[in-house]
Amino acid sequence: MVAAHAPAASPGLSCCVVLIPSLPPGFLQSPALKMHWVLLASLWLLAASPTFSIFQKPTGSPATPRLQYLLEPLHTAVHTQRGATATLPCVLRALPRNYRVKWSKVEPANYGENVIIITNGLYHKNYGPLSPRVRLRHSHRYDASLTITDVTLEDEGRYRCQLVNGLEDESVSLTLHLEGVVFPYQPINGRYRFNYHEAKRACEQQDARLATYQQLYKAWMEGLDWCNAGWVLDGTVHYPIINSREPCGGRLLLPGIRSYGAKDKQRDRFDAFCFTSALQGEVYFIRGHLNFKEAGQACRNHGATIAKVGQLYSAWKFLGLDRCDGGWLADGSVRYPITTPRQRCGGLPEPGVRSFGFPSKELRTYGTYCFVGT
Fold it and tell me: Which CATH number describes the domain made up of 279-373?
């Protein structure tokens, strides 16, 4: 046997020796045979030696840095509702001599972070719009957990607890999830009328905000099926389909979230997917044959206001509001919430908020849904 050595390996790479069978004397005298054997030996080397594989990983690659001072949280997601108090855990395993802990909210749309609070263990300072509603829990000397009171729809997202210790720092990330409901929304003048900014404003006017893609996906998993495309918070456009059908991407496509991707926020026009969470109040129905103006006055006579679309969805989702009567809402639409589907209440098999659209505001056919805060 003849030992053929592979070329010297780069630092950190393994090398090997490949054994080639010995040949009879005079076997390589023919130039053609000599060239044939050189090619064969080269192929043998390449096949036998992992040194030359593009998948070879250098030895001594740096490992993922481990946390030295911060404890890894048991759960990185905290679930809450609007109006509740939520705590994002951040606990130190040891106290460095000089350190600071900085909490911030990650804002992907702006490619940055908004600082919320900074502490050195003795003193702290709050920053930004969350300032009046946040504090450090401080249940013990190692506890730097962040408590948010009166949670709002805008509080949902990713947060970072960062320990700064001289030139070194480490951090943990946590996500605040709000339990809620996603609903499609379009204005009185028909579908595909909103640019991005108008869609965002329309949701806010209905006690909601533009849904995130993750919220829309969760709603689809729970049964949302809607054939009109709508804006979501990151400026992309989608629609969720449970039952594949011809007008909604075709029968051959599997159920899922159909996507148009990112669109021009000024020029392109679609509907909106809004998200709302638990109510801080109550929605109730006033029976009658009222036009839109009379409906608003009827609510005011009871110390309430005419309910918004998001408030009706929230009452249906969280309070189980079930009413087989169409009623006026603040945007001029007429809707009614059904938690127990039945034939005489729309005839649809799934629970949901049914809509009569936007009838003439002079029509005296419906009652009204009112909202009173707590």
Answer: 3.10.100.10
Question: What's the DSSP call for residue 215?
Answer: H
Tell me what the mean pLDDT of segment 42-69 comes to: 44
Q: How is the chain split into domains, by residue range?
A: 2-52, 77-178, 180-276, 279-373
Residue 123's alpha-carbon distances to 100, 117, 223, in angstroms, are 10, 11, 48
Angstrom distance (rounded) from CA 55 to CA 321? 59
Kindly tell me the burial class for residue 101, based on how many C-beta atoms sit within 10 Å of its own C-beta (0-12, 13-18, 19 or more). buried
CB 271 within 8 A of CB 185: yes
Q: How many residues can be counted in the chain?
A: 374
CATH class of 180-276: alpha beta
User: What is d(CA 128, CA 126) in angstroms, rounded to the nearest whole number?
Assistant: 7
Q: Is the model's pLDDT at 109 over the cut of 90?
A: no
The CATH architecture of the domain made up of 77-178 is Sandwich (2.60)
The pLDDT tens digits for 194-251 are: 999 999 999 999 999 999 999 999 999 999 999 999 999 999 999 999 999 988 988 8
Residue 67 confidence (pLDDT): 79
CA distances from 152 to 157, 197, 278, 305, 326 (A): 11, 20, 10, 21, 29
Domains 180-276 and 279-373 share a fold: yes
Structure tokens at 368: 């009204």
pTM recorded for the entire structure: 0.78
Q: Are 153 and 200 in contact (CB under 8 A)?
A: no
Q: Is 135 helix (H, G, I), strand (E, B) or coil?
A: strand
Whether 90 has a pLDDT exceeding 80, the answer reads yes
End-to-end CA distance of the chain: 91
Residue with tokens 């949701």: 203
CA Rg value for the chain: 32
